[in-house]
Amino acid sequence: MTTLPHRILGALDRFNAAHPWDHNAHYHRWILRRLPRRFDRALDVGSGSGDLARLLATRAQEVHAVDADPVLTARAVAATPAAAPVVFTVADAPAGLPDGPYDVLTCVAVLHHLPLDEALLAFRRRLAPGGTLVVVGCARARSVGDHALGAAAVPLNAAVGWYRTRGRAAQRPLSMTAATRPPERDFADIAREARRILPGVRLRRRLFWRYTLVWRAEP
Ligand SMILES: C[S@@+](CC[C@H](N)C(=O)[O-])C[C@H]1O[C@@H](n2cnc3c(N)ncnc32)[C@H](O)[C@@H]1O
């Protein structure tokens, strides 16, 4: 027998599926505000549909976008104007990342797909002096704070979905077709590792089941 809470959750799932919006792209403008107005070289790790790489290209001389998925990368290439200074590469991070150095390194909703320590060390090594690392990540909800923030996001998520789709049923954007996986590590665990590898790093839990990490390399 289906209980009332199950029916409500089912209805909410169907509503969200009909009014999709991209929680990762929601943070793209926020990321740009953490970056210098102009920079030379940027690397976007796990670039998916290429939306962030194209945004970075409005400020950079050169953007390298790396993703493990060849099909999605081909679609990202097709969606990118030929004149945009973005080079897409299919490779497995962190081992297959280009060497750098980079003035900007971004990684959105990808870090939980990678071995955490190895990836953070690889990012640190690739940053130029004074360079900026910005991660938008996904963490497993464990603490009361994690669950409270997640619960607060539920009605907001539906409201934003309704607003962005103008109340009409919509298709998922290309960016939401990328492979996903549930995060295994919680925010406290990620923060502990990040502080060890990136001294002075700033981390914050965010709405819509994300956290942010910002680190600047010594000039
Ligand atoms: C949830 S999507 C996020 C994509 C994009 N950053 C965004 O914000 O829309 C995760 C992406 O990470 C990529 N990915 C997963 N493991 C990877 C790895 N080891 N190396 C490179 N990319 C990887 C997937 O192919 C997918 O495009």
Automatic annotation (TrEMBL):
Gene3D superfamilies for this protein: Vaccinia Virus protein VP39
Keywords: Methyltransferase, S-adenosyl-L-methionine, Transferase
GO BP annotation list: methylation
Record-linked SUPFAM superfamilies: S-adenosyl-L-methionine-dependent methyltransferases
The keyword Methyltransferase is annotated on this UniProt entry: yes
Domain Methyltransferase type: 43-135
Molecular function per GO: S-adenosylmethionine-dependent methyltransferase activity
Designated name of the protein: Methyltransferase domain-containing protein
Organism whose genome encodes this protein: Streptomyces qinglanensis
